């Protein structure tokens, strides 16, 4: 039996997307044992996946401490994994791979000017461009497998597995439908729209469509949520009492909602995996080609400033991204509510109007 480890030390959306490695490597090695090594706050998107046999949660800050990293390396080496996948290639994951003793260490190549060590037995180049509508980030992860092993009929779509108990979730049964989930804040300031812009979108929806609005945000963003709520016109249409503060809780709640409109992030990938419609507002500094999974203009649609104004910047080089990240709202200001609503209105009409 093959012992396989997937190291994905990144945020929620990245971890969910990387679950396609488990779903596909089980096609290659059906009797294998697949373990995921992830940050503790992301495990909810992997739970109940029948292709994942074990999840090892780790605290992000603790792993960065050298003594803890050395202990982790020792534990991984002791496990004697046959195959290790490292799709994100952080310093910690590269070092774990290097000293793991695994005969197959498969990772995506990144430019490391200082450390030129044999971290991987199979360093795989990023694809130049995507060839399907699943998004380049998913294709790159599938390519980690297919570049080394024979993989037939790959499955590109990440999946969320709901338990029978979670299916009984009834907190929103009494709300006026449809129930519209709004991701009003991104996971970072760089992924969050200006408050006044988000407020305009909320007001437009509550003015134009029936139903109930729910807000999604991280627990630490509650005060920011309140500021946006106070700016909204039709507060009676917004329910701020129903809220889930865990990933699994959000999954269970979102599974009962009708659509999601959100800044790009983990909530979008979760909702797509639940097969609920999504409209994504991309941060100007995010490369849409990487993350625009399964967008077809109907079930899933989106907007990106670069599509509305192609001449703003020419590439997504590291230097260019850093400049944008330093002041993302200077570009966000150019992604006006008028631009967003021009694309959002047909999406809402399609899903909310009979």
Number of domains: 2
> Nearest-angstrom radius of gyration?
21 Å
Structure summary, number of beta strands: 12
Structural class by helix and strand composition: alpha/beta
The side-by-side strand order for the widest beta sheet comes to 3-2-1-4-5-6
**What is the N-to-C order of secondary-structure elements (H for helix, E for strand)?**
EHEEHHEHEEHHEHEHEHEHEHEHHHH
Poorly predicted ranges: none
Q: Please state the overall shape, judged from the principal axes of the Cα atoms.
A: globular
Distance between the termini: 53 Å
CATH class annotation of the largest domain: Alpha Beta
Assigned CATH architecture of the largest domain: 3-Layer(aba) Sandwich
Helical content (DSSP H or I, runs of 4+): 25-40%
Count of discrete alpha- or pi-helical segments spanning 4 or more residues: 15
Q: Strand fraction band?
A: 15-25%
Mean pLDDT: 91
CATH T-level fold name of the largest domain: Rossmann fold
Per CATH, the superfamily of the largest domain is: Glycogen Phosphorylase B
User: Strand count, sense and closure of the main sheet?
Assistant: 6 strands, parallel
């Amino acid at each position: 039996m093959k012992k396989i480890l997937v190291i994905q030390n990144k945020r929620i959306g990245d971890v969910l997307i990387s679950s396609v490695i488990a779903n596909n490597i089980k096609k290659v090695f059906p009797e294998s044992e697949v373990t995921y090594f992830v940050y503790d706050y992301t495990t909810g998107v992997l739970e109940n996946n029948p292709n994942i046999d074990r999840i090892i949660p780790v605290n992000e800050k603790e792993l960065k401490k050298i003594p803890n990293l050395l202990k982790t390396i020792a534990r991984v080496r002791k496990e004697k994994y046959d195959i290790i996948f490292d799709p994100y290639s952080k310093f910690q994951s590269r070092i774990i791979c290097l000293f793991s003793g695994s005969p197959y260490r498969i990772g995506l190549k990144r430019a490391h000017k200082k450390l030129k060590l044999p971290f991987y037995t199979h360093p795989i180049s990023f694809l130049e461009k995507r060839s399907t509508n699943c998004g380049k980030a998913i294709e790159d992860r599938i390519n980690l497998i297919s570049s080394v092993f024979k993989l037939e009929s790959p499955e590109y779509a990440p999946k969320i597995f709901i338990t029978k108990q979670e299916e009984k979730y009834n907190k929103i049964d009494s709300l006026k439908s449809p129930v519209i989930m709004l991701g009003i804040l991104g996971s970072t300031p760089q992924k969050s729209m200006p408050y006044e812009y988000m407020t305009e979108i909320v007001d437009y929806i509550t003015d134009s469509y029936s139903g109930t609005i729910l807000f999604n945000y991280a627990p630490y963003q509650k005060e920011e949520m309140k500021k946006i709520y106070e700016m909204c016109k039709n507060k009676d249409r917004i329910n701020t009492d129903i809220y889930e503060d865990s990933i699994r809780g959000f999954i269970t709640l979102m599974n009962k909602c009708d659509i999601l409109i959100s800044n790009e992030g983990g909530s979008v990938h979760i909702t797509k995996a639940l097969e609920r419609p999504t409209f994504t507002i991309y941060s100007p500094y995010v490369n849409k080609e990487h993350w625009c999974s399964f967008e077809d203009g109907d079930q899933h649609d989106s907007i990106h400033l670069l599509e509305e104004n192609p001449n703003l910047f020419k590439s997504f080089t590291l230097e260019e991204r850093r400049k944008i990240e330093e002041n993302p709202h200077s570009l966000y200001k150019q992604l006006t509510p008028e631009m967003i609503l021009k694309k959002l209105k047909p999406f809402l009409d399609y899903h909310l109007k009979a």
